[in-house]
């Protein structure tokens, strides 16, 4: 199971790195490469990363909810809850925009969609990095 966690962590780190690099540097190669096509390719691993991140954090949250009685709130409990809800918001924004794009293409994009895409891209980097870090560190503790 440790190997699966480490592989999943590596996948999350890779997604975070690819999204961050493309998000920051796409203006440098916009003339030679269609950035929308690159996002179209990246959207598939991003979708998988969001789903797996939500499952990982939700499972962690549920395990901590079961352990918790009337004791004080711990840092781990707050982290698990925050990660779960931030990932849920990310999933809602991403899948809503992505399905809209898949159905209507670039013509269906508005200024609001562009702003949400920018927020999604930043959140993908943060959530994927945090998920990868959690999975990597927890691989040896199980």
Written description of the protein model:
The protein is mainly alpha-helical and 142 residues long. The chain has one domain. Helix content is 82%, strand content 0%. The protein has 4 helices and no strands. It has helices spanning 2-25, 35-67, 75-104, 111-139. α1 packs antiparallel against α4, α2 packs antiparallel against α3 and α3 (75-104) crosses α4 (111-139). The termini are close together. The mean pLDDT is 91.
Characteristic key phrases:
142 residues; mainly alpha; 82% helix; elongated
Largest sheet: none
**What gap, in angstroms, lies between the N and C termini?**
8 Å
Order of helices and strands: HHHH
Query: Which residues sit in consecutive blocks of at least 5 with pLDDT less than 50?
Result: none
Structural class: mainly alpha
Number of strands: 0
Mean pLDDT: 91
Count of helix runs: 4
State the helical fraction: over 70%
Strand content: under 5%
Gyration radius over CA: 17 Å
Shape: elongated
Number of domains: 1
What's the layout of helices and strands?
Elements: H1 2-25, H2 35-67, H3 75-104, H4 111-139
Helix pairs in contact: 1-2, 1-4, 2-3, 2-4, 3-4
In short:
By secondary structure, this protein is mainly alpha-helical. It has four helices and no strands.
């Amino acid at each position: 199971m440790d190997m699966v966690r480490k592989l999943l962590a590596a996948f999350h780190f890779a997604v975070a790195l690819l999204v961050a690099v493309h998000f920051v540097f796409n203006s440098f190669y916009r003339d030679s490469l269609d950035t929308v096509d690159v996002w179209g390719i990246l959207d598939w691993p991003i979708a998988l990363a969001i789903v797996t991140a939500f499952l990982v954090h939700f499972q962690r949250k549920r395990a901590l909810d079961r352990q918790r009685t009337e004791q004080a709130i711990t840092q781990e409990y707050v982290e698990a809850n925050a990660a779960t809800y931030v990932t849920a918001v990310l999933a809602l924004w991403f899948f809503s925009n992505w399905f809209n794009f898949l159905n209507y293409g670039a013509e269906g994009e508005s200024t609001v969609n562009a702003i949400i895409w920018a927020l999604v891209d930043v959140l993908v980097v943060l959530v994927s990095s945090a998920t990868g870090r959690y999975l990597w560190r927890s691989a040896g503790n199980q």
